[in-house]
Automatic annotation (TrEMBL):
Keywords: Transferase. This is Citrate synthase. InterPro entries: Citrate_synth-like_lrg_a-sub, Citrate_synth-like_sm_a-sub, Citrate_synthase, Citrate_synthase_AS, Citrate_synthase_euk, Citrate_synthase_sf. Belongs to the citrate synthase family. The active site is at 302, 349, 404. PANTHER family: CITRATE SYNTHASE (PTHR11739), CITRATE SYNTHASE, MITOCHONDRIAL (PTHR11739:SF8). One of its GO terms (cellular component) is mitochondrial matrix. NCBIfam families: cit_synth_euk, PRK09569.1. Pfam families: Citrate_synt (PF00285). GO terms for biological process: carbohydrate metabolic process; citrate metabolic process; tricarboxylic acid cycle. One of its GO terms (molecular function) is acyltransferase activity, acyl groups converted into alkyl on transfer. Gene3D superfamilies: Citrate Synthase, domain 1 (1.10.580.10), Cytochrome P450-Terp, domain 2 (1.10.230.10).
Length: 464
């Protein structure tokens, strides 16, 4: 094993012991743990869902028009997703809490600092705010699971350096599927009432292993291929930052905490969330499901936009030969981008109709920690210019910035300058949200997903 800690399920024998408990119809729950709380909540939530089905099962959730079917299913209410809900005007709420509320209520490492992602994980999985001790227990649990088999690191070592970091991440997660407790338990005939248990184990193991894999990719592609080890007394973000080589950079560690919290979940319909949920609905295990979701995150209209934003800004500065482009220079660069049939990355959204509160949270961080950074000034100037340019086009439904418009400038400020890597950080965060929901998908027994498609002929026949 590529060992950086003692993983409860790292060895074949312990995987076998979990499996044997599961096969005897027993969940594997330690008292007082996050898993124990999830386990207690399952019967209540199953009952609640049953009541919703009985009371409202035949009610209409709205009309599906031909435009909606052709137009990327915008606005069709066709998914259950409990961990977060997106309002087009207000933005995201995680289990009912807005980003400012998360910042106020979740435990922090630094006094008055950024919330801890492990605490968010507790909230996403239970709907309850954790105490500091509970949040710490999640950090410890994740640290104890943080080990990656040598063969996965070997696969990464064999990748060409110019294979995109997101492709490498997907490859490594697919290879890690070798460790899936769910897949093995399913092979041996686990009862469906217990599916949630190995799905929980796989999800926590996967979240725990992601910083090691992500850092190995970073080091292989941009550094010397070596990475450090997990400090069992540190939190997830501190460990991740240390593995990346930024552990002594306290500003970066705080940024990472905020970053991992705000990118985690954005309700169920976005490409990465929906894909993870869809693939999981076929009872593909969390490794296969997350890898599929992250392949979607790697698209430039979704998560890859964060690399595109910084590339676009830097290429503007290079073309104009300045670090401080003027209002008029930015305006004409935006117009050129649109005239050449490209999008302005970081602006627009399929659901939001206002500035993304994830953008605002990052802007507040920048105002507090890097207000004199020249690239931050450009990001601020873009906010004054791009929405007007996009609105003038008359077709963009939301001209305001999204989460990706801001993240690159912050990472670059602290020295993480390699834009090709940015989506990997988004991916690590997104795992927290989509895997939390995946645990609930199986706990609630949600069925295989199978919407109806139509041909052009069949649409015409319906109305002509
Ligand atoms: N720049 C230029 N044109 C844009 C645009 C932008 N930032 N945003 C939307 N448009 C265009 C669309 O391409 C579309 O054009 P066509 O009718 O010619 O096809 C038109 O405006 C209408 O699009 P929309 O209904 O407003 O937006 P969609 O729901 O179709 O798409 C999104 C949403 C995010 C893909 C789009 O706004 C976009 O491409 N933005 C830039 C890429 C980006 O920042 N993506 C990250 C989103 C957040 C994330 O998932 O991480």
């Amino acid at each position: 094993m590529f060992s950086t800690g003692i993983s409860r399920f790292a060895s074949k024998s312990s995987i076998a012991s979990v499996r044997s408990l599961l096969l005897r119809g027993k969940a594997t729950v330690a008292a007082g743990s996050l898993k124990a709380r999830v386990s207690e909540l399952i019967p209540e939530k199953q009952k609640e869902l049953k009541e919703i089905k009985t009371k409202y099962g035949s009610k209409s959730l709205g009309e599906t028009t031909v435009d909606m079917a052709i137009g990327g299913m915008r606005g069709i209410k066709g998914l259950l997703w409990d961990t977060s809900l997106l309002d087009s005007e207000e933005g995201i709420r995680f289990r009912g809490l807005s980003i400012p509320e998360l910042k106020e209520k979740l435990p922090t490492v630094v006094e008055g600092g950024e919330p801890i992602p492990e605490a968010l994980l507790w909230l996403l999985l239970t709907g309850e705010l954790p105490t500091e001790a509970q949040s710490k227990s999640v950090s410890e649990d994740l640290n104890s699971r943080a080990s990656v088999p040598d063969f996965v690191m070997d696969i990464l070592d064999r990748c060409p350096r110019d294979l995109h970091p997101m492709s490498q991440l997907s490859l490594a997660i697919n290879a890690l599927q070798h460790e899936s407790i769910f897949a093995k338990a399913y092979d041996q005939g686990i009862n469906k009432a217990l599916y949630w248990d190995p799905i929980y184990e796989d999800s926590m193991n996967l979240i725990a292993k992601l910083p090691l894999i992500a850092s190995k990719i970073y080091s292989n592609v941009y550094r010397d291929g070596k990475i450090g080890s997990i400090d069992n007394s540190a939190d997830y973000s501190q460990n991740f930052a240390s593995l990346l080589g930024f552990g002594d950079n306290k500003g970066f560690v705080e940024l990472l905490r905020l970053y991992l919290v705000i990118h985690s979940d954005h309700e169920g319909g976005n490409v990465s969330a929906h894909t993870t949920h869809l693939v999981g609905s076929a009872l593909s295990d969390p490794y296969l499901s997350l890898a599929a979701g992250l392949n979607g995150l790697a698209g430039p209209l979704h998560g890859l936009a964060n690399q595109e934003v910084l590339r676009w800004i830097l290429s503007m500065n290079k073309t104009l030969n300045t670090e401080n482009p003027s209002h008029d220079q930015i305006l004409s660069y935006c117009k050129e981008t649109l005239a050449s049939g490209r999008v302005i990355p970081g602006y627009g959204h399929a659901v939001l109709r206002k500035t993304d509160p994830r953008y605002t949270a990052q802007r507040e961080f920048a105002l507090k920690h890097l207000k004199d950074d020249p690239l931050f000034a450009t990001v601020s100037n873009l906010y004054d210019i791009v929405p007007k340019v996009l609105a003038e086009q008359g077709k963009v439904k939301n001209p305001w910035p999204n989460v990706d418009a801001h993240s690159g400038v912050l990472l670059r400020h602290y020295g993480l300058t390699e834009q090709g890597y940015y989506t990997v950080l988004f991916a690590v965060s997104r795992a927290f949200g989509v895997l939390s929901q995946l645990v609930w998908d199986r706990a609630l027994g949600l069925p295989i997903e199978r919407p109806k498609s139509l041909t052009m002929d069949s649409i015409k026949k319906m109305f002509e």
